[in-house]
Amino acid sequence: MCVEISLKTSEGDSMELEIWCLEMNEKCDKEIKVSYTVYNRLSLLLKSLLAITRVTPAYRLSRKQGHEYVILYRIYFGEVQLSGLGEGFQTVRVGTVGTPVGTITLSCAYRINLAFMSTRQFERTPPIMGIIIDHFVDRPYPSSSPMHPCNYRTAGEDTGVIYPSVEDSQEVCTTSFSTSPPSQLMVPGKEGGVPLAPNQPVHGTQADQERLATCTPSDRTHCAATPSSSEDTETVSNSSEGRASPHDVLETIFVRKVGAFVNKPINQVTLTSLDIPFAMFAPKNLELEDTDPMVNPPDSPETESPLQGSLHSDGSSGGSSGNTHDDFVMIDFKPAFSKDDILPMDLGTFYREFQNPPQLSSLSIDIGAQSMAEDLDSLPEKLAVHEKNVREFDAFVETLQ
Amino acid sequence: MNCRSEVLEVSVEGRQVEEAMLAVLHTVLLHRSTGKFHYKKEGTYSIGTVGTQDVDCDFIDFTYVRVSSEELDRALRKVVGEFKDALRNSGGDGLGQMSLEFYQKKKSRWPFSDECIPWEVWTVKVHVVALATEQERQICREKVGEKLCEKIINIVEVMNRHEYLPKMPTQSEVDNVFDTGLRDVQPYLY
C-alpha cells in the first residue's frame, strides 16, 4: 500500500513530495509468535512513523500550506512509482517487523529537490518591487493625477519585460490616451518630436485624427504654459514638415528641450523621458537637461527596424511619427534610481541595496565617539578664538552690506 | 549481556543546545516508553494509552514528536538545563556530552545491593559554536534542523533493528524494568 503526498498550487501545478510504502511479503519468521513482541514492534514502528513524518522536508511545507498551495494525499495499491519524486530522492527504511504471516516493511521515499517548486512559486507571485515597469501607470480609467505619462505595458502583465512589444504599448496607449489627454502633454517628447510610440501617438499626423482632435483643445491651453518651447521650434519644424500648424503646435510641446544642445544625434529616442514625472514642472533648462544622464544616455543602443517598421505599418493605431525612420530607436529603459552603468539596475535591486546599506564610515562607533569627544573638547577653545575675532567678523560683514 | 551504545554528535549554537538535546532525548524516549501497565489477574496486563505531541523548536527549524507526558518533559528539561549550565560554565572549547542509559535492575541477594545493568546507552556529544552575524545564525538554524532530521532518522533505524529488549516483566518485577514512578507514561528505566 502506497501513500503519496503531493503538493498542489493554486495555479494547478502539482508535485510529488513523499511516497510512503507499506509492504508485506510472504517471508515468515517461524520463530516469532503472535505475542507481545510482535505488538511491541508494531507499535515501535508506528512511533517511528510519527517521528519520521516530522523530519521530512515536506513537513515544513505542509505546515505552511494555505493560500498558495495545499498538500494532498493519494493512496494506491500495487507497485510503488517513484518517478515523480525527481532526481536524488532519499529513501528511509523506517522499520521491519516479522510476523507469523509475513514481514511488514515500512519505507518512505521523499523528494530532496524542492527548488523547482520554489522558483515556480516565485515566478508566479508578483514581484514585490522592481521588475514591474509600471512605475508610472496610466490606468484606463480616470486617474487622479494627470501628470503620469502613459504606461506602455499592458496592465495585466506580471513578468518584467524590459522591451515591451510595440503593439501592446500602442494598444495601451490607445485606451489610456483618450481618457487622460492632458497627461500626454506633461511628458515632453524626445526630439524628433516623438518619443517611443506608446507615449506620443499624438504625434503621428498620419495617426488618428480623432485622438488628435481630443488632444488639441487641451493642448492648446497648455501651449501657452510651455515656455521655451519656441526655442526648439526650429528643430521641430525640421521634423514636422508638411504638417498643419495645429500639429506643429502640438509637436512643439512634445519636443524635448535638449534638442538644440544635445550631443547625441538627434535621431535618438529614449524611453527615459518617461521617467521624469511632473516633467511639466521640470526646470526648462537646456543645460540641466544636457547634463542629465537620463536624457543623454551615453551607451544607449539603437534598435532596429522592427520597431520602426511596426510603427509605420500601424500608422493608424498611433505611434508613427511621420518622421524619418531613424528617429525612433529603442533605448534601454532605465527605471528610476537606475545607475548609468552598463547594467541598468532595476528597482528591485535598488530597493534591496537601499535596505542593506553599508555602514557609514562616519557612523562607525570608535571613530564617531572619538571625534565627538574631540569636538566637544575643542568647542570652548574655538569659541574663545571666535570671540576674539568678533571685531574682524563685524568689519567683514559690513563690507558685504 | 552486551550493552549497545549509540553516539550522536551535533554542532549547535549556544541557544540551540537545549532544544537539540531535548529533541534527541524525547525521540529516544518516545520509542522506549509505553503506557502504564495495568496488571490483571492471570498474569495478563493491559497497557494504557499514551498520546504524542509535536514540539516546534524556537531556535531551530525543526519539529519533533514527544510523548504527551508533562512529568517526563519536566524531568528531561531539568536535566538538560543542568547540562546546559554546566556547559556554559565550563567555558573552554564548548564540548560536552550527555548520556541516556537504559538499564535493568537485577536483584541481588543480600548483602549485595541491586545491580543496574545497562542494556542501551545513547550518548549525545554537543559542540557549541559561537556565531557573529544574524545571517550566520539563520544559516545555522537551517543547518542544525537538517542535521537533527538526519539524527532522528538514525535513531529510528537503530530502534527498528529490534535488538535486545528486556523481557516484559511480571507484575512483581515491573519496577526492575520500567520506571513506574511517572503517572502517565512508563519508560524503561533510565
Automatic annotation (TrEMBL), chain B:
Alphabetical GO biological process terms: autophagy
Pfam family, one: ATG101
Presence of the UniProt keyword Thylakoid in the record: no
Keywords per UniProt: Autophagy
Localization, UniProt: Preautophagosomal structure
Any GO CC annotation of this UniProt entry: phagophore assembly site
InterPro entries for this protein: ATG101 (IPR012445)
Main location: other
Entries under PANTHER family matching the protein: AUTOPHAGY-RELATED PROTEIN 101 (PTHR13292:SF0)
Recorded family membership: Belongs to the ATG101 family.
Protein name: Autophagy-related protein 101
Organism listed in the record: Pan troglodytes (Chimpanzee)
